[in-house]
Amino acid sequence: MNLPPTTEEKQFLMVGSSKAMEQVKYLVSRAAPTTAGVLITGESGVGKETVARTIHVQSPRADRFFVALSCDAIPKELIEGELFGPEHGTSADEKSGRSGRLREADKGTLFLDEVAEMSLAAQARLLRFLEHPVAERQDSSEAGVLDVRVIAATNRNLAECVRNGTLNGDFLRRLSVVTINVPRLRDRPEDIEELTAHFLADYCRQYGRVLTLAPECQTVLRMHDWPGNVRELRNLCERVVVLARSSPVGPEELRSLLNPDSPVRREAPPAAEDRVRLQAVQRALAEHGSRHRRRRRHHHGLGHRLRRWLGRLPRRTTATLVVVVALAIIALLLVSIIGC
User: Quick one: 8-183 is in which CATH superfamily?
Assistant: First the structure.
């Protein structure tokens, strides 16, 4: 059941202080007080619904309902009825007694997860509602003006969906007045420690345990690739709280609790200061290599070979040769002058 948020839930829900997450928080803070359509993009598990709930609790609608609908969990032919209510007078109408998610979200927020999975018919009807917010039940004269803020999310490439004809371009443009891309966890490793502490505290409180991780565990966490993003890290923290034998949890025990089906580990990403130093060293090496190549080209030139040859001769012979060459040049010049 979708209930209005409690006082505790009204705090800022997103965790992370990396530059990427600061940008997400900035966009949330600008979009939340408005009624602008928001499209949240990102891989599965990055926390798109968390971002949507944060927008809701920071908006003037915070005391009203936040209604979530997973479009990929409902057959496409049924999504329209789920949004606007079942057809009037049908058996589904009599059994459900529901009036549709839009009416449930009146004065609040409707969150459409995996919005690209909606049928084209449902997209067209929802677009019409967004342009003119009057919702009527299917095949019914019952209608009413609704005040619903719609926030959508997807992990799909929507531009490609538009090209393939599975997504209405006008519908996409109406939803994406503000677009917020939530970064992958592996792209913001500096947030892993903060997220881990947050989840461990939550699950320790839930399960009545006192548990910490040994400092060496941070290296283990940073080396993991996190294909499931924040959701995978949250699940790991719950598993640790439930199964850990003692506190603090050591790196070997933590590795044993990581999902064995998770792929590939990576080298631990360098800290920000190390990345800056590494880039400076790479630039210096590139410049040195460029100068070395120029010197090699210069050294292999005719002038350099001549200088080397002269350098091998005795000093007196070299001086004599220089005088002879100079006299020959003068003689040539005199001959050319007399000839003229």
Answer: P-loop containing nucleotide triphosphate hydrolases (3.40.50.300)
Architecture per CATH, 185-291: Orthogonal Bundle (1.10)
As a whole number of angstroms, the distance between CA 112 and CA 40 comes to 10
pLDDT tens, N- to C-terminus, the chain (340 residues): 455 444 434 444 789 999 999 999 999 999 999 999 999 999 999 999 999 999 999 999 999 999 999 999 999 899 999 998 876 555 554 455 567 999 999 999 999 999 999 999 999 999 999 988 765 444 444 556 789 999 999 999 999 999 999 999 999 999 999 999 999 999 999 999 999 999 999 999 999 999 999 999 999 999 999 999 999 999 999 999 999 998 999 999 999 998 655 544 444 455 545 555 566 666 767 776 666 566 665 555 555 665 665 566 566 666 777 777 778 888 888 877 787 6
- What residue type is assigned to position 120 of the chain? L
Q: 325: which 2 tokens? A: 């060459």
Token pair of 311 as six digits:
């350098």
Q: What is the pTM of this model?
A: 0.71
242-280 as b/e: b if 16+ CB within 10 A: eebeeeebbbebbeeebeeeeeeeeeebeeeeeeeeeee
| Total H helices, total E strands in the chain | 15, 7
15-29 burial, b at 16+ Cβ within 10 Å, e below that, comes to bbebeebeebbebbe
* Residues 101, 83 contacting (CB under 8 angstroms): yes
Same fold, 8-183 and 185-291: no
Dihedral angle sign, alpha carbons of residues 41, 43, 48, 49? positive
**Apex 228 CA angle, 181 and 200, nearest 5:** 100
Q: Which of 2, 52, 10, 6 is nearest to 32 (CA)?
A: 52
The ranges assigned to domains in the chain are: 8-183, 185-291
